[in-house]
Amino acid sequence: MSSPWLSQAWKQLSHQLSEDSFPQSLLLRGEKGLGKLQLAKFVAKTILCSEQKHQACNQCHSCQLVESGAHGSLFLLEQEKPKVDDIRALSLWANQTSSFGSSKVAIISDISLLNSASNNALLKTLEEPVASTHFILINHLPFKAMPTILSRCQVLSISTPEQSWVKQWLIKQKVRVDENFALIYRFCNGSPIQVKEFYREQQFSQLEQFIHQYQLMVDAKPNKLADLIHKQASCLQWLGHCLMLSFSLAKGLAVKEDFPQFAVTNTTDKTIDLAYQDWLNLVKQTEEYPGLNVGQQLYPLFARFKD
């Protein structure tokens, strides 16, 4: 694996593959940006490899087909908004005979994007397993898979690397780490790849502007937070981090000296908690309705700080 923070998870999965004890359905769960899809694809390549069981050889015809995206025994569902017909197509594919070798693998890149009908169709597929067909599902936190889906899978949690580890990794990658690293680490979900990209694109001044507008919003003052989020969808994730940091400080779960810009004195932690729940619901809505006017949907959340 090219991502060292995935080595422990890969070691466990490689052992199961070599012992022929790999589950029929596997769910990889963790923060977004940790490389779960990368891991899923490598596991799939290993399962389909015609030369060895514990790790893909990257040389055989099967590995080359996987690499080129032309392997008929690999089904990859990466649509932004999968429909129930996509899951039905997956089910039909799962029941067909493998075109190359005996095993087949299906990957769903984000099961939180599935609506109720799609979840039910997937559950039916998992409940009627086909021999030598494996399913690898990816679940990005903070959203959770349906309990019925979880009950059909082996769940493997991908841990977020420690802050100190990420810092050392960045230094080895020749990234110039500065005094803002702790904050950037938080806003990048602890993902080494995202932190590296953040530094490469020099996004900190943009983040500072966003945090300032967040402070104005919490103080019930005129702000441009809705405009910023409307113009750049990724800023919606930043709002979630702001709310979580404010809540963590209010509960004593974070050190005020580390994140003083998120300390809130004129509202209750209950208000922040409710605002965070509003944010979670809004994120879910944006996944179900891509054309949603996010800026307008933010005002009920903002109103909590005006009461």
What would you say this structure looks like, in words?
This is DNA-directed DNA polymerase. InterPro entries: DNA_Rep/Repair_Clamp_Loader, P-loop_NTPase. Pfam families: DNA_pol3_delta2. Its EC number is 2.7.7.7. It catalyses: DNA(n) + a 2'-deoxyribonucleoside 5'-triphosphate = DNA(n+1) + diphosphate. With 307 residues, this protein is an alpha/beta fold. 50% of the residues lie in helices and 9% in strands. It is built from 15 helices and 5 strands. The chain has helices at residues 7-18, 36-48, 61-68, 84-94, 116-127, 147-150, 163-172, 181-187, 192-200, 204-218, 225-231, 235-250, 269-288, 294-297, 299-303; strands spanning 25-31, 74-77, 104-108, 133-141, 154-157. Strands 2-3-4-1-5 form a 5-stranded parallel sheet, with helices on both faces. Strand 2, helix 4 and strand 3 form a beta-alpha-beta unit. Helix 1 runs parallel beside helix 2. It is globular and about 65 Å long. The chain starts with 6 loop residues before the first helix and ends with a helix. 32% of the residues are buried. The mean pLDDT is 91.
Brief rundown of the structure:
InterPro entries: DNA_Rep/Repair_Clamp_Loader (IPR050238), P-loop_NTPase (IPR027417). 50% of the residues lie in helices and 9% in strands.
Helix content: 40-55%
Order of helical and strand elements: HEHHEHEHEHEHHHHHHHHH
Report the principal-axis shape. Answer: globular
Main β sheet profile: 5 strands, parallel
| Low-pLDDT windows of residues | none
| Number of distinct beta strands | 5
Distance between the termini: 51 Å
Average of per-residue pLDDT values: 91
Global structural class:
alpha/beta
Radius of gyration: 22 Å
Strand-residue fraction? 5-15%
Strand order of the largest sheet: 2-3-4-1-5
Q: Treating each run of at least 4 consecutive H or I residues as one helix, how many helices?
A: 15
